[in-house]
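Example complex used in Figure S2.
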Amino acid sequence: MVKKRSDVYSVEIYGTKDLQKTEIEDEDEKHKDLKGNKKNKKTEELKKELDLDDHKLSVSDLEKKYGTSIDKGLSSARAAEVLARDGPNALTPPKATPEIVKFLKQMVGGFSILLWIGAVFSWISFAIQLVQKAESPFDNLYLGVVLALVVILTGIFAYYQEAKSTNIMASFSKMIPQQALVIRDAEKKELPADQLVVGDIVEIKGGDRIPADIRLISAQGCKVDNSSLTGESEPQPRSCDFTHENPLETRNIAFYSTTCVEGTATGIVINTGDRTIIGRIASLASGVGNEKTPIAIEIEHFVFLVAGVAVSVGVLFFIISVSMRYPILDSIIFLIGIIVANVPEGLLATVTVSLSLTAKRMAKKNCLVKNLEAVETLGSTSVICSDKTGTLTQNRMTVAHLWFDNQIYSADTSEDQTTQPFDQTSPSWTALSKIVTLCNRAEFRPGQENLPIMKRVVVGDASETALLKFSEVILGDVMDIRARNKKVAEIPFNSTNKFQLSIHETDDPSDKRFLLVMKGAPERILERCSTIMINGKEEPLDSEKAEAFQTAYMELGGMGERVLGFCHLYLPEKEFPDTYQFDTDSMNFPTSNLCFVGLLSMIDPPRSTVPDAVSKCRSAGIKVIMVTGDHPITAKAIAKSVGIISATSETVEDIAKRLNIPVEQVNRREATAAVVNGMELKDMNSEQLDEVLCNHSEIVFARTSPQQKLIIVEGCQRQGAVVAVTGDGVNDSPALKKADIGIAMGIAGSDAAKNAADMVLLDDNFASIVTGVEEGRLIFDNLKKTIAYTLTKNIAELCPFLIYIIASIPMPIGTITILFIDLGTDIIPSVALAYEKAESDIMNRRPRNKRKDRLVNEQLAVYSYLQIGIMQSVGAFVTYFTVYAEQGFLPSTLLGVRVNWESNVINDFEDSYGQQWTKYQRTYLQWTGYTAFFVSITIQQVADLIIRKTRRNSIFRQGLFRNKVIWVGIFSQIGIALILTYGLGHVTALNFTPLR
Amino acid sequence: MATLNEKKTCSERMENFRRFVWNPETKLFMGRSLINWVWISLYYLAFYVVMTGLFALSIYSLMRTINPYEPDYQDQLKSPGVTLRPDVYGDRGLQIYYNVSDNKTWDGLVTTLHTFLTAYTPSAQHLNINCTNNTYFIQDTFDGPNKTKLSCKFTSDMLQNCSGITDPTFGFPEGKPCFIIKMNRIVKFFPGNGTAPRVNCTYVVRGEESHTLEVDYYPVNGTFNLHYFPYYGKKAQPSYSNPLVAVKFLNITRNTELKIVCKIIGAGITFDNVHDPYEGKVEFKLKIED
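Predicted assembly (1286 residues):
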């Protein structure tokens, strides 16, 4: 299980107030969803266990129930006992397939079966020959052993590769053990969170992750972020009061894996590990089995094709050879030869290596692939349903615009800002900056002075964090400023007031006045103001100025930004002397007739790499759909700024506004973009959703619940799209599972999401997905090249057998020699093709249609088999005939000689020159023929490798030397061939001979 | 990850296949229109014609560059093979078993020898010349008719007692059988380095121990006369016939299986190739029963 890291950014708080209501409804819906989708029995269990009554019990009842004490906690002995009973407080990872099963799967998968059959046939014929006391039965034994070895070795190799990639994931999972502050034996102790047991008293504070399901017994201003559980992005207040019958709704329970945003609390652990709410949901989600990936289907298709060809050609020639009165045993050996010639033994290993190379490359680019085959799936993606927060955006509120002195200024929203470019000379700005700095409760966590400001962790909500960082960037040490302007009173923000207020001493020793600063919802702030500051001077707030304020407010709001108003008041020294006691409850100070200073608007700005990535997707024919829980206006603004909605396209509403007609009259087909509200989505049936998905190329789903994501994914899949979905919450898991490729966020993602996903984005960045798509397409292209390369020589290996049977010439190539090509010389070059760089059009063509663009299609097979393969065979046969001719057997003498040639009783076999050969001399010549044939195929494979480097580009455009690995491949190929022919030429079992 | 496979029923598959073979809507036969098929067939026809042409051209130029008189390389034929007549093969090489009192068991062997020697009758050898020099018969020019070279005559009467003329049963009924040893031809091979190679037969008891046998060799000493060498190839010496040596075993123990090895002794002839039992020597098992 992945432990959530302490956030680099402060926890995000989003959305508008009424969101909460709909989310609660959604939550109910979600439970229905879960119940509907999953197996009944499990659901029953879930339901039963949800009948939690701990939230209703009083503290003393709880103490009794769990045998604990609030002050002293559990005794260590008791805790150990419970730990032994319940097991550690960690989620059980999804049940892993036993290693041996995985291993055996590798042994029998793909072509292995065919080769096993070949091996068994060889052994059978060995046994028969042994019984018949034939001349050299051991050849078949060796062949069988070699075939079995090949299967076992490739099996081990594939298993090793898979294990290695699984290990990457596993090591990633074991990051950072979580600690919890526990009271045991009346002492506070830091314990690893997995040591927690039911009845433990734990203390949590802002920023902590809740270590287990906890019934709160005391809380101070505690808020939790339940988004990983329910998808609600608004932090939920938590107290020790029982507020709701439903344990999920009540305020006095905090759930495992959610985060405490602020405040502190103490509670009793009531559930641990898999018995926690999240554990139950996670186990439900992991119950959905992984289905086959596109590349797995492709490879299966390919194996099926090749095996089909191998078996049918084999059987056909078996029948032919039997009817040509070859002995059955010989026919079986031909059959083995044909199968071996047809099966690309090394290919599956090559594919695995290529995929894991790509996976490694992607991991470097922050895409962690859990499932090797997902690499390619990403490449065939045609729709990406992306989250907004954190994926498209930076996941932190940032001040985007300011309004003071009747003017809107833009602020820098990039990721690594160090200065702000706008005009800071106005005295109004000085006043505004003071309010921004002082009227703010957020603080930096201590001890991060060396970090860039933007990376520092802040305790406080998102808006305050934004303001804090903003002022830190401009003014420098905010904490120091606050210390110099001592705070004497404060009213925190609450939803009835909708403002936040604080009263400070000033840092000017001569100025004994108190400064009252206030921020809040702009309209509320304006209500309390009678003057407005223009260029440092207070001017009366007349209707004209109020109008200007309204315009600015509307403009900023229209950009989807969250706007805050700021005002201040210097309290007269006479009425409020030094010693004045401010009372925030009775508000014995003025809160109206203040001086309005300015507006600040904040947005979660898009990541700077995203617009480029979106346009890349667009040119690659991938539709990017934004799915967010945010307000439509914000969603649309972000969509526009990253290019998901392009500058020229309009939604139905835009057209209506432009033409000044009601929305209903607009022709929906004219609008290329659409912003669909979650509420509308709820009322749509699937046909209507299909229509939306079909008619609009640019779609934003706003205010959607994570459950609706599933509906959207299914909608896209109905259109035949390969859908990639990003998600981070627990309740995204069904959508992640449903998607063709689920992408979980590495930073913000919950454990359950990461488990359900096929890929984890380590930097949560949308641009990384696009890199992934590119890699995925590249690997598909390169696999095509590899397969084409590998298939080609199959014909050159197969033809000898066919011609041998039909024309009765001496055998041109031996089965073992074929294995040396397939597993010796050809392996490294075919892996080298995986290093081939992308061709120029890779991101400019449409995603492949999974039903039509197969990995191995008709063209590839025909081109490899019937064109290049035939050319290779012709070349190899020319070599064969040349070798025989130069040794004395002219082509004409070779035809039809098989029976005499192979006869053991003819030791004076005459060649074209009248020379006479013994059996062994002929056999040795035959091996020379094998070697020549082998070398010929190897050399032609070098040429084949070079032509396979490109599919669309010309070889010069692609560059002969850009892929250095290809040359390594070529040299290794030649090197291996040289070693085999000259180094091992005297080992008779290998059937190689040194060539002149 | 979601599945991409929809389960299809068998009938659907059949329907799909039928649609693939002939789609009445698009008029496509196996995924192509008829004209398309014609074009693609023409393309492949042309392609294969060109490939065949290339292949033929390569073979043609190969044949043009090949020397018709002698092979380019002889690295695979360094030492001549040796064969035995009569040649009866059992499970493990040559096995000649017969019963002196049962003429059915040796009739076949005698016939084989007679058949073999028909190539050495004077009429079969009439094109060859009589040679008397005991040196290599080196011919740098084509002295024979039709641009050929001359070959020396070897007639069966040179085998004297084993010629089948004086004793048509080759001594089989007496238990003193004749065997004929033939050395394989190799173009331009000079065996013996000036001294005539000779046959030496021994019998082997358990492994390497070789014991001399009481044998008569024909021609005398069991030599292959040097004037039969070198061989200039089929085209230059169409009527060439291999010289022979006959071995008559005079005292074979009855009713026991003897492993006999006949080696050809001479420089340039090796008989120690472990893989090849017929290179420079011939091994056979002989068992004569009463």
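DSSP finds 35 helices and 28 strands in chain A. Chain A has a mean pLDDT of 80.
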